[in-house]
Each structure stands twice: as C-alpha cells, then as structure tokens.
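Step 1: inspect the first sequence and its tokens.
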Amino acid sequence: MLRFFCWKITILLLLSLQLHSDKNSEIYSFIDDNAQYFLTVIKEEGSNFEDNPDEFKEKLKNIWEPMVDVQLVSRLILNKAYKSASQEQIYRFQERTKKLLLDTYVSTLLEFKDYEIFTNAKIKTNKNKTFEIEIKFDSSSSYSFITKFTVYRNKGGELKIINIIIDGINLGLTFRNQFQGVLKKEGNNLDKAIESWQPLSSEDLFSN
C-alpha cells in the first residue's frame, strides 16, 4: 500500500512538472515569436518609417495589438476615474492608450539599428497569477537593455501583456502617474484630460 501511494505521488509530481514546463514554453513562445517577428519588420522596413509612418505603424499594430489587454491596461491607468467614466470615454481612452504604447515602444526600438533579441527561458510566476518574462536587447554599437513583460491569461484562456518595463522604466506606472497629473491639471475633467494626454517621445521618457 505504501509503495502504491508513493508511486501515485511521484506520478502527480511528474505531471505537475510537465504542466509547468508546457505553460512556461507557451509563455516563452508567445513573447519570443512575436518579438522576433516585430524586430524583423522593424529591421527590414524601418527605413520606411519617416516616409510612410502610418502604414509602417499599422503593420506593427497588427502584431502588437492582439498581444496586449488594452482594456485592462486602460483601466489600471485610469485608476479611480474608471468608475465614473462613460463607455464612450473609456473607448476613447483605450484608443489613446494603444497609440501611446505603440508609439513609445516603436520609437524606442527604432533607435537601435543592429541589435538582437534574446528571450530568457526562466519565467517568474507571481502570486497574483501573472507571469514575468525578460527579453535582452543586445546591440554592438549602443548600450544593451532589458525589457520585462508582465503577462496573464484572460478568461478566454488567451495570454495577454498587461505591463512593460523598458530599461527599468515601468510604462504602466509611468503612464498612470502621468495621466493622473493631467487629470488633476484639467480639474478632474475626464474629457479634457483624455484629449490633452499626449504620447511621450522616447527622449522624454528615458531622459532620466
């Protein structure tokens, strides 16, 4: 009986390890595959950015947008203002947030002409059921930096990004603090705050 019990425990442990390995492999592929493709598009077509920025960004948007839970990110940035916001205001804010995230990320990556991406296979599991995975952007002619992605699985079972930390700059926290400052400046007028909240350039964001 004891031997049978030990075998059951061993099998359960092996199955648990296998499930953990499969989960980490899925998260790794979700980030690495899309990031490598994103980088390939930038390398091959980045020279077209100044001539036709809208077309270039649209192509990147088609890769980027499905990866991010814009609704949740927008809710976190709006913070307390989310509860009193109308559906129309929330929609406009989500559209602004998508532009802000894409512009910041793309403008940062375009500064590097000869870098490669190395995704860390070690994935951190947080207590709030989110996961953290790191990518190293390695450049031979400029400094290298680490980007950390916070990922979770939504109710539909899809992996989604909910935060990004680029070279130590927490975009989610930075955007939330920035918007709350704009909201206060506009006398808590949400419509005016959404309208005046402008995307930060990479120079402004990483100036410190």
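Step 2: inspect the second sequence and its tokens, then contrast the two.
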Amino acid sequence: MGRRFIDFWVHVTPENSQEILSKLRELGFGAAVVEFDGSEEEFRETLRYAESMGLELYRKLVVRVSGRRPLLSALRSNRGRYEVISVVCEDLETALVAARDNRVDTVVIPPRPGYRFDKGVASLLRNRVEIPFNQILEDPEPSLKTYLEVFKILGRKAGIIVSSGASSPLMLRTPWQLLSLPMIMGYSHEEALKTVSDECWSIIATNLEKLSPDYVAPGVVRIGR
C-alpha cells in the first residue's frame, strides 16, 4: 500500500466544499482535515460527498485567541467535538500554554514582525508545529524567516506538519509542493514525506482512539461491553 497523503488544514464552506474536495482528490490526497464553516447537517452532507469519491475527511477546530484564560476556555468548551485542534499562537503567552496542553494537536506560529520566537516554547513543546503553505505565498519574506526559525529551533524537537491552509481550490497545492518546503529547509526526502503523511496520521489515529466510547486512557480501551 502506498503512502497516504493528507492536507491537514483546508478551510471549507458549504458553498465551496465540492469544488475543494474534488480538487484535493485530483491532486493526490487521500484525506483532508477541514475547518468547516457551516451547520452540522451541512458537514454531514460534505462528509457523504467526500466518501463518495474515496476521500477521508476529519474536522478541525482552529483556535485564534490571545492569552492563557481565553485559550483554556476554548479548549475546555470544545473538548471531544473535533478530531483535530490547532492553535494559532497570537503571542508568546498563548504559545507557551498551547505547547504543553495535550488537548492541542498542532501549534501555528504566525510570521509577525517583532514576534519573539522563544526557546522556552521548544523546551515545553508536546505538540506538533504546523506550517500553512499559503502563508508563505501571501507574505513570503517574513514567513520564510519565521519558518526557518521554526525548523531550526523546533524541527528536531517536535514533528512538523505542512498543510496548505487553503480556502479555495486555487490555493491548494500537491503533496509534492507542500513537502518541498521542509526539503529546502534541510530535511531529507523521507523526513519531508512525513510532514504530509506520517505525522498527520499519527495525530488522527490517537484522537480517534480518544473519541471512542470505549476509550479509558492512552493504550487502554474497554472490551466486551
């Protein structure tokens, strides 16, 4: 069985879902993690469409807050509702909290002038770092500078995931285009492949286990209920 590629962050609405999901399949992805703006019924319809074309779909919550209390509140109120939770670290305090909270799957470090990239985050990091490719296309110079630091400081400490961060079909990229980023940052081809496959699937497998009604603790499930 070949390697299964997954785009770990696609912004989908009921209006653009079919076009985006069809394009993902065309580009060679077997799965996608979507930030979905719509009702539960609309998401179920989107799931059915994805299944009809053989595309696995998982739902992501993207938390965009500043500070410890708003972040913890958002994580507490959404516990168990999403397969993936990502936090956009608007400031250092948010990054330090998100880095060590096991409810967070990926942290996103935005390329902002004056953002103090702290090695304290690296020492606390329990989660993977996600790099949205579209950010580089929108703002190349600060983005490349920030993500070079991410790879240098966090890359060997935490798993790196590269996603498209796309919100339209034109913003989508092939798996090979996504993995080109870690390769130019010094990753081997095999290491780069993991940023769009193995690292992602590891999160999905762990979280699906946690969301199971038989889940008790890591590695422990009820049998024969």
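Step 3: confirm your contrast with the notes below.
The mean pLDDT is 87. The chain has one domain: 6-212.
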